[in-house]
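User: quick one, sequence for these tokens?
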């Protein structure tokens, strides 16, 4: 039997509670590995039933909708780092670049749940108010288990337990370019990324067939060679960025899916999302052009 995701009304309640709480980060639900029909659990159950992971894989996206590219990123990450791993699908309620339309946030959470059931690791679905990666990582690292996070403040006197959990943020090549774009930071300087790279990593999926000079590997090489020193980008950060190959064939993106749905070209998008996401788009009429 297929697992039963949280209904839309429950997700809306969790979303509303988060947005009114003033909290910067919160896990709202967890899908354990080897799911059963009753295996979607609350964030409080998840926090009390497991220790904070040493390595947390964070897939942060607008999920508008989740695609097979998101799925490939998650699969690549879970197979790239020592087991056991914990995966967090993270949705920001304040995106630095992208509008919160056309699919409302609550529908994106519903689709994130459906993708999570297809992944080979425990999956936390979380929300953040932070638009930038350095701030997101800080919020994840400091939010207590009592508030739906990973930090167990009861062990703050224990040096070993206090050791900072390493986060691996899973991104695409375009997102890496935005992370290393100075205009997003005060003073047009990348210095705010120093705390992030001191403790955490990036796993970047490069695009297949990217032209020389335009891909993630080229940008990381530029960083390593001191090409971003003039804007505060330190060459040693490059050692904290892992690059993997992307999907073969044409580029897969949420934008491509939305456009295909809007023009009624089902054949152009139906294989770009997992079954559960496809069923949700169909049932809810998402992304269709309004008459």
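Assistant:
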């Amino acid at each position: 039997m297929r697992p039963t995701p949280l209904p839309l009304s429950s997700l809306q309640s969790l979303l509303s509670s988060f947005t009114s709480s003033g909290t910067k980060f919160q896990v709202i639900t967890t899908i354990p590995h080897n799911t059963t029909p009753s295996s979607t659990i609350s964030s409080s159950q998840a926090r009390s039933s497991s220790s904070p992971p040493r390595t947390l894989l964070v897939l942060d996206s607008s999920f508008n909708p989740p695609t097979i590219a998101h799925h490939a990123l998650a699969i690549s990450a879970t197979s790239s780092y020592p087991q056991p791993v914990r995966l967090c699908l993270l949705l920001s309620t304040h995106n630095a670049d992208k509008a919160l339309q056309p699919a409302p946030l609550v529908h994106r959470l519903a689709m994130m749940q459906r993708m999570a059931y297809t992944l080979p690791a425990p999956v936390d679905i979380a929300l953040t108010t932070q638009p930038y990666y350095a701030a997101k990582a800080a919020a994840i690292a400091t939010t207590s288990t009592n508030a739906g996070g990973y930090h167990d403040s009861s062990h703050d006197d224990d040096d070993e337990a206090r050791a900072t959990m390493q986060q691996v943020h899973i991104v695409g090549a375009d997102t890496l370019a935005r992370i290393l774009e100075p205009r997003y930071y005060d003073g047009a300087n990348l210095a705010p990324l120093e705390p992030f790279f001191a403790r955490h990593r990036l796993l970047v999926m490069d695009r297949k067939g990217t032209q020389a000079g335009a891909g993630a590997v080229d940008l990381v090489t530029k960083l390593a060679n001191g090409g971003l020193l003039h804007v505060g980008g330190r060459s040693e950060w490059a050692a904290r960025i892992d690059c993997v190959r992307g999907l073969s064939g044409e580029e897969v993106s949420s934008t491509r899916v939305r456009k295909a749905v809007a023009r009624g070209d089902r054949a152009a998008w139906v294989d770009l999302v997992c079954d559960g996401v496809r069923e949700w788009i169909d049932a809810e009429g998402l992304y269709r052009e309004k008459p």
